[in-house]
Amino acid sequence: MCGRFNLRITAADLKSLFGTTEQGIRSNPQEFDSCLTRFNIAPTQKSIVCHLGESDTPVLTPMRWGLIPSWAKDLRIGAKMINARSETVAEKPSFRSAFKRRRCLVPASGFYEWKRSGKEKQPFHIHQTDDSPFAMAGLWELLKQSGGPDRDEPAEILSFTILTAAANSFMSPIHDRMPVILSGESAAVWLDHEVEASALSELIQPFEWENFEAVPISSTVNNARNETPECLAPLS
């Protein structure tokens, strides 16, 4: 699975990564900027997502991590749907509609995974060797809520999930699942509304990765409230 990640990027580089200059109309500058440097993004928190806007051009919008289906009655369901398995995403009721119409890319500079050794779990920071950002395949949803102005949650909630696949040879010594990472033409095809969902299965297979490394780090990252560069510090 992918249960924690980080993003450390400038707005200009983020827009360049996805070939867009637009920010989603539902985001505000302060919220957008607050998502650009995050060391420990956890479920239910917001991060930036790239998706196609109304004019079918890529836009960047902060969304809540943990997909909340449009039919959900309880927002807590999102905490259980931070990942979607690529093997079953086309059939699962919670994901199949988004898989057909609302695919997205989730930028990251790295993600965290824990390797179990006996009763202990050692956290690893998995990132590209040059620390450049990459894009994970995702799905997004829009939940429209009814109710008066005094409700705690906003009337509209945008949320996302990250697709995972069986671990490749790089990840299998650490964990049996990994996020689906897309780039170049594959990333563009994933976003394209004209591509039928049935033609996407080849994109979300457990391909081998190049230029990635897994660095053992301290337990600082274990606590989601820790939001500092120390989350990335390698074990001495």
Which CATH-level-2 architecture? Alpha-Beta Complex
Number of strands: 13
CATH first level: Alpha Beta
**SSE ordering:** EHHEEEEHEEEEEEEHE
Distance between the termini: 27 Å
What's the average pLDDT?
91
Helix content: 10-25%
| Domain module tally | 1
Please outline the major beta sheet: 8 strands, mixed
Strand content: 25-35%
CATH topology: hypothetical protein yedk fold
**Which spans have pLDDT < 50 for at least 5 consecutive residues?**
none
Rg calculated over all Cα atoms: 17 Å
- Which homologous superfamily in CATH is the superfamily? SOS response associated peptidase-like
Apparent shape: globular
Q: Please, how many helices? A: 4
Broad structural category: mainly beta
Description:
The chain is mainly beta and 236 residues long. Helix content is 12%, strand content 35%. The radius of gyration is 17 Å and the shape is globular. The model has no long low-confidence stretch (mean pLDDT 91). One of its GO terms (biological process) is protein-DNA covalent cross-linking repair. InterPro entries: SRAP (IPR003738), SRAP-like (IPR036590). It is an enzyme of class 3 (hydrolase). Its EC number is 3.4.-.-.
